[in-house]
Amino acid sequence: MPYDTSVSPTPRPARRRRTLLAAAALGCVCLIAGCGGGSDGGAAAQPRKGGGGASSTPSLSPSPAKSSPARTTSVPPSPSKSASRTMSGPLSGKTVVIDPGHNPRNHEHTREIGRQVDIGTAHKECDTTGTSTDSGYAEAEFTLDVSHRLRALLQAQGAEVVLTYDNDRPYGPCVDERARIGNNAGADAVVSVHADGSAVGNRGFHVILPALVRGGAADTSKIVEPSRELGTRIAGLFVRATGSAPSNYVGANTGLDTRKDLGGLNLSTVPKVFIECGNMRDPKDAALLTSAGWRQKAAQGIADGISSYLRG
Q1: What would you report as the CA-atom Rg of the chain, rounded to the nearest whole angstrom?
Q2: What integer is the mean pLDDT of 96-120?
Q3: Whether pLDDT at 277 is above 50
Q4: Binning pLDDT at 50, 70 and 90, where does residue 121 land?
Q5: Does residue 276 have an active-site annotation?
Q6: Closest-CA residue to 286 (of 169, 201, 177)
Q7: Where do the H-state alpha helices sit in 29-135?
Q8: DSSP 215
Q9: Measured in Å, how far apart are the chain's first and last C-alpha atoms?
């Protein structure tokens, strides 16, 4: 099944039309596949080796987005954990939970985040510190920034948006609590935002889908198919919004990966996916991830995918 790029995304400036059309063509040639690797909240502080096979490079490559000055942010963080929708729109009545990966202060609480929690089929660390670019831009900073931008875009369409945390706690939440927040909110969709920490030369994004898991507190049987639909929509529209190619090291160039070892997915009872927006350890990807302009495009692509999924 190819990426779904047939649903018009939310409006964007006209000057990006040619880049978006080229990226949309790339999305249409991608086919769904899956492979595994990595840790629960995304990459740990040290780079990990890339997993999964890679097929031949697509014949049409998207144009990379231009980088803006590193670590600049035009969207200020909000002090509230959640915010009710403030305007009507196509997503009125829908609840979306955004899960910013890791926490900027996790590294100060290694004992607390290192404790084991039940993920249904096994036990894993409560959370990890996440990765960073070689220049020191932390994944946890990136995920919060993209999540704030994503929240604003979804609220503009009338959605009620809940963040699992908003820089309002010293560490965590643990992966099991992150899942419970989405479940308790009765979310129509949950997206966990991350960036990877793989080897230099490994580039691109991938969306992680829940595998069919039954064991202990985990039962993903009711969310596997809707989560795949959500992830497929996000992958296709992320290509179109950012110009980034699907991962060349995970998912055989489809931008999709299926895993059964992530507590945030295993324990979810509502449709949920993770997105690894790029590889922080690769200089070319890092140049994108540290660009405020590109982060806005990333948020737009995720928002377009969520909107497309929720609107059917």
Answers
A1: 17
A2: 97
A3: yes
A4: confident
A5: yes
A6: 201
A7: 110-114
A8: E
A9: 16
